[in-house]
Design goal:
two-stranded antiparallel sheet; 54% strand; six-stranded antiparallel β-barrel; Pnp Oxidase, Chain A; single chain; mainly beta
């Protein structure tokens, strides 16, 4: 298991105990009620999805809620699928490595969003990780 998998596995265990911030167009949005899950993919080897990103035999997904409805105007630009110029969406948090708390950035793609009058629930696919 490589370092990224170790960190993501740690995040799946205690994802609700951390603070998360989603960044888009130089604005920070607090991401709440976060859960991170790992799910197997039905592939035998690394595969390219539409030439956009590649997947392994498992993927990590993140689900969280944003109460700042101003992000609604950007969803079609952020989401994988309806937009051909979508971008990686960074989500920042902290993780403990060797007894030290270190900043961690999860790079994600938005795969689905659901909203009501008070919140937006984001479903994102984690495609990379950076530990500072």
């Amino acid at each position: 298991m490589d370092l990224d998998d170790c960190i993501l596995s740690q995040l799946t265990i205690d994802s609700t105990k951390r603070e998360y911030a989603l960044y888009y167009q130089d604005k920070m949005y607090s991401l709440e009620d976060v859960t991170i899950t790992k799910s197997p993919m039905p592939v035998n080897k690394p595969t390219s999805r539409g030439g956009v990103y590649s997947i392994r035999d498992k993927e990590y997904k993140i689900k969280g809620t944003i109460h700042d409805l101003s992000v609604m105007q950007f969803i079609s630009k952020m989401m994988l699928g309806p937009n051909t110029e979508f971008q990686e969406i960074p989500i920042k948090t902290h993780v403990e490595i060797d007894g030290k708390i270190r900043p961690c950035t999860l790079f994600t793609y938005l795969t689905n969003a659901m909203n009501n009058s008070s919140k937006i629930i984001f479903n994102l696919l984690i495609i990379g990780i950076k530990i500072e």
